[in-house]
């Protein structure tokens, strides 16, 4: 069996599929990743073959140049729209990601015609993979990367993807199957094939201080791979102020983002370079993040209480889910203070809920258990 995995370049979209791609290879089948941007190098670093479906494409510039509604590139405006009209905001995002998928579709199709896959596995916001599958007449399986949505996404993205018209291909209305990584305790609908969320955040050297014994609690602070680039790190000013009042260590895992907006940092704030988030969270007692699915689910697998500061897209859904399931807090960034972080570290009910969902996720079928299901679709 030959499985083509397709993804936008967003690492939060690509990374959750890597464990399944490994499982496909470990079972003796062939796997190929088709993506672009950062996703190409990251796929190769994961030990997987990959093709660049849009060589030279600057994804952020693409979104800037093609956005018909300025609120898509104005993070603050998009955040406001998600609060006021989530359905309209989601359709706006779908249209832009579909345009990106359309940009990837032609080179991806050429690669697929040469490689001849038996099935396509696509992340839920990718529109190129379902098009390629429809053109080749093979099954397309949707791989969810979070709890939000899941049903109706193929049709929503297909209606904005022009490749179907260029090639005279009928638009699909649904996927052949959906891989669902959201465990029951999150309150998400249990659709499709359940699979354990395996936290993959790439590899990296772990600094000595991370594994050393420590005397005080440690809090991870991250904004993922996108938010800092779009809107800076100003949302974390309240966290810096709270850190000054607490006897705890704060690790600001913010990559290469400009931190000047945060001013002078107190002595208990450590700024780190790239550390795989799953490895970092295994050595932390709480986490503050933006609500991206990757950060939310990696925190869940580590059993770490979460404080979510959402900005846009599915982040508000994830924040609401964290709060309703009892595994953390959703606080407006302007209102966060030391009392919220203290609660995150000390509340026994939150910690018990985190352990319950961590254990629940661990009982779900592994990626290796999904491989026979893919093979059955191929026949």
Automatic annotation (TrEMBL):
Coiled coil (UniProt feature): none
GO MF: hexosyltransferase activity; UDP-glycosyltransferase activity
SUPFAM superfamilies, per the entry: UDP-Glycosyltransferase/glycogen phosphorylase (SSF53756)
GO biological process, one term: antibiotic biosynthetic process
Domain Erythromycin biosynthesis protein CIII-like N-terminal: 22-224
Residues in Erythromycin biosynthesis protein CIII-like C-terminal domain copies: 238-377
Keywords on record: Glycosyltransferase, Transferase
Pfam families per UniProt: EryCIII-like_C, EryCIII-like_N
Family: Belongs to the glycosyltransferase 28 family.
Stated name of the protein: UDP:flavonoid glycosyltransferase YjiC, YdhE family
Organism: Allokutzneria albata (Kibdelosporangium albatum)
């Amino acid at each position: 069996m030959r499985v083509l995995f397709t993804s936008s370049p967003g690492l939060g979209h690509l990374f959750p599929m890597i464990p399944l791609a490994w499982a496909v290879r470990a079972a003796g089948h062939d796997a190929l990743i088709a993506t672009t941007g950062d996703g190409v190098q990251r796929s190769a670093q994961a030990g997987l073959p990959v093709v660049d479906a849009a060589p030279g494409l600057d994804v952020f510039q693409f979104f800037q140049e093609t956005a018909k509604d300025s609120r898509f590139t104005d993070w603050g405006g998009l955040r406001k729209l998600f609060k006021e009209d989530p359905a309209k905001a989601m359709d706006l995002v779908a249209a832009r990601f579909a345009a990106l998928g359309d940009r990837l579709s032609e080179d991806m199709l050429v690669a697929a015609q040469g490689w001849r896959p038996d099935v396509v596995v696509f992340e839920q916001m990718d529109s190129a993979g379902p098009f390629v599958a429809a053109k080749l007449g093979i099954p397309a399986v949707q791989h969810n990367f979070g709890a939000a949505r899941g049903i109706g996404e193929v049709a929503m993205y297909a209606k904005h993807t022009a490749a179907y018209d260029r090639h005279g291909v009928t638009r699909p209305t649904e996927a052949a199957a959906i891989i669902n990584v959201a465990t029951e305790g999150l309150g998400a609908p249990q659709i499709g094939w359940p699979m354990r969320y395996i936290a993959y955040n790439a590899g990296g050297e772990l600094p000595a201080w991370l594994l050393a014994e420590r005397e005080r609690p440690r809090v991870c602070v991250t904004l993922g791979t996108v938010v800092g680039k779009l809107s800076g790190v100003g949302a974390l000013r309240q966290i810096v102020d709270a850190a000054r009042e607490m006897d705890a260590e704060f690790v600001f895992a913010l990559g290469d983002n400009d931190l000047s907006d945060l001013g002078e940092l107190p002595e208990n704030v450590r700024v780190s370079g790239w550390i795989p988030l799953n490895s970092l969270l295994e050595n932390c007692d709480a986490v503050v993040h933006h609500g991206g699915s990757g950060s939310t689910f990696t925190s869940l697998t580590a059993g770490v209480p979460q404080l979510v500061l959402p900005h846009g897209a599915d982040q508000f859904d994830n924040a609401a889910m964290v709060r309703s399931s009892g595994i953390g807090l959703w606080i407006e960034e302007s209102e966060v203070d030391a009392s919220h972080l203290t609660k995150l570290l000390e509340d026994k009910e939150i910690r018990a809920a985190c352990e319950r969902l961590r254990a629940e996720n661990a009982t779900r079928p592994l990626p290796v258990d999904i491989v026979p299901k893919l093979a059955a679709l191929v026949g």
